[in-house]
């Protein structure tokens, strides 16, 4: 068994995907073109957002979003503060830090998302933006976040790299309603994954849309007149074509994933802490993460010996990342995130996981925990 078997996502649409790849190659239309346009239209129709901009990765999408909001590359932003959760992929904090902004870290709640009770105390006159993350496929608590942001006149970037397809109070992630800009990732392991790197940025704001379109193409306003400092940030046409084919089965894939997660929870809730989904959320379970009280690493080793691979999301919280040491955080500053980093275990899940595979995982976990 693999932690994630991504081949099955290709296998079940092999003919259509191969055809699409060949078509892009035959036409040799690799950068910009009909597949990218069609994907942007499909995904904006799906989420109900006005504008979608395909980008080269989720991380680049986050950097481009900050640039589009006016935090220009090459300028001094050292006074500007950006709030991110302590439990996320490094990229969420890396993007603002890369632009020279000051990262402020917020601890998480029982859903593994930014703890809104701790957010308000982090805001001051230098706060420029909040980047809430929809971790493991469920949204943060946006009513509270958007209220705080509005009151203090600060931007919100929805880090939806793990949550395309999820919803918050019936509002879709990436609809542009959960912040000024939303960013998702098509990294292969994501619920909607491509065959390389890719991402998309969503907004309802026309000015931000125009900025994003220029910035993903070296700030070119057309005719190689470079009006901003941007980057090589486009989603390529081949990945867009693959995503168009995969997206046809997306709702079914997410239904399968949700059912698989619910099955795990039903079967495991008496022996471990299973994921809690807030009543206002539907999750796409980008990861299925349980918590064990003791001996996490030993449990993982034993599961591995029984043929059950697992993963860690995330073994080191953001505030303890060596690259951010100058922020001055120390162990103990974010107790909930630190606990999660030491006690979380992600179990195998993907869009096509079989019930038989899940039963192997469940039985192995029961056996290992019985012997603890
Ligand atoms: C929460 C979060 N933010 C940002 C990213 C960056 O996305 P990408 O890997 O496409 O650059 C990821 C991807 O793993 C992520 O999970």
Walkthrough of the structure:
- The protein has 372 residues and is of the alpha/beta class.
- The chain folds into 2 domains: 7-247, Aspartate Aminotransferase, domain 2; 250-370, Aspartate Aminotransferase, domain 1.
- The chain is built from 13 helices and 12 strands.
- The chain has a 7-stranded mixed beta sheet, with helices on both faces. Strands 7-6-10 form a 3-stranded antiparallel beta sheet, with no helix packed on it. Strands 11-12 form a two-stranded antiparallel ribbon.
- Strand 4 (127-130), helix 7 and strand 5 (155-159) form a beta-alpha-beta unit.
- The radius of gyration is 21 Å and the shape is globular.
- The two termini are 24 Å apart.
- Pyridoxal-5'-phosphate binds at residues 57-59, 88-89, 91-92, 133, 159, 161-162, 185, 187, 197, 199.
Content of β-strand: 5-15%
Mean pLDDT: 98
Helix content: 25-40%
Bound molecules: pyridoxal-5'-phosphate
Determine the CATH topology of the largest domain. Aspartate Aminotransferase, domain 2
Q: Main beta sheet: strand number and arrangement?
A: 7 strands, mixed
Short description:
The protein has 372 residues and is α/β, with parallel strands linked by helices.
Secondary structure layout:
Layout: H1 7-11, H2 14-27, H3 34-47, E1 51-55, H4 58-68, E2 81-85, H5 91-98, E3 102-106, H6 116-119, E4 127-130, H7 142-152, E5 155-159, E6 167-168, E7 171-172, E8 181-185, E9 199-203, H8 206-215, H9 237-247, H10 250-268, E10 281-282, E11 288-291, H11 296-305, H12 335-343, E12 344-347, H13 355-370
Parallel strand pairs: 2-3, 2-4, 4-5, 5-8
Antiparallel strand pairs: 1-9, 6-7, 6-10, 8-9, 11-12
Helix pairs in contact: 2-9, 3-9, 4-5, 4-8, 10-13
The structure holds pyridoxal-5'-phosphate (PLP).
Residues 57-59, 88-89, 91-92, 133, 159, 161-162, 185, 187, 197, 199 line the site of pyridoxal-5'-phosphate.
């Amino acid at each position: 068994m693999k932690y994630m078997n991504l081949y099955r996502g290709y296998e079940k649409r092999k003919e259509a995907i191969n055809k699409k790849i060949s078509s892009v190659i035959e036409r040799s239309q690799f950068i910009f073109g009909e597949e990218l346009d069609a994907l942007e239209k499909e995904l904006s129709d799906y989420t109900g957002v006005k504008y979608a901009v395909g980008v080269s990765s989720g991380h680049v999408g986050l950097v481009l979003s900050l640039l589009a909001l006016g935090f220009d590359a090459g300028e001094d932003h050292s006074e500007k503060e950006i709030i991110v959760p302590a439990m996320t992929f490094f990229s969420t904090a890396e993007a603002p830090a890369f632009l020279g902004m000051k990262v402020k870290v917020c601890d998480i709640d029982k859903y593994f998302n930014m703890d809104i009770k701790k957010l308000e105390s982090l805001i001051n006159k230098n706060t420029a933006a909040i980047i809430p993350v929809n971790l493991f496929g469920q949204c943060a608590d946006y009513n509270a976040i958007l209220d705080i942001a509005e009151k203090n006149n600060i931007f919100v970037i929805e880090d939806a790299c793990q949550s395309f397809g999820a919803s918050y109070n019936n509002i879709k992630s990436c609809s542009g309603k959960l912040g000024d800009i939303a960013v998702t990732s098509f990294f292969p392991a994501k619920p909607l994954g491509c065959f390389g790197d890719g991402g998309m940025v969503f907004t309802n704001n026309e000015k931000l849309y125009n900025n994003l379109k220029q910035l993903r193409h070296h700030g070119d306003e057309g005719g190689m007149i470079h009006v901003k400092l941007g980057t090589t940030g486009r989603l390529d046409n081949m990945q867009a074509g693959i995503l168009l084919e995969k997206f046809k089965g997306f709702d079914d894939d997410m239904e399968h994933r949700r059912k698989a997660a619910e099955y795990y929870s039903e079967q495991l809730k008496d022996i471990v802490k299973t994921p809690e989904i807030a009543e206002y959320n539907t999750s796409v379970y980008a990861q299925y993460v349980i918590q064990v009280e003791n001996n996490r690493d030993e449990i993982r080793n034993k599961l591995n010996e029984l043929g059950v691979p697992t993963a860690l999301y995330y073994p080191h919280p953001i505030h303890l990342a060596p690259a951010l040491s100058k922020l001055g955080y120390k162990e103990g500053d974010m107790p909930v995130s630190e606990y999660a980093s030491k006690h979380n275990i992600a179990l195998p899940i993907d869009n096509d996981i079989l019930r038989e595979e899940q039963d192997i995982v469940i039985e192995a976990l029961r056996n290992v925990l019985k012997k603890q």
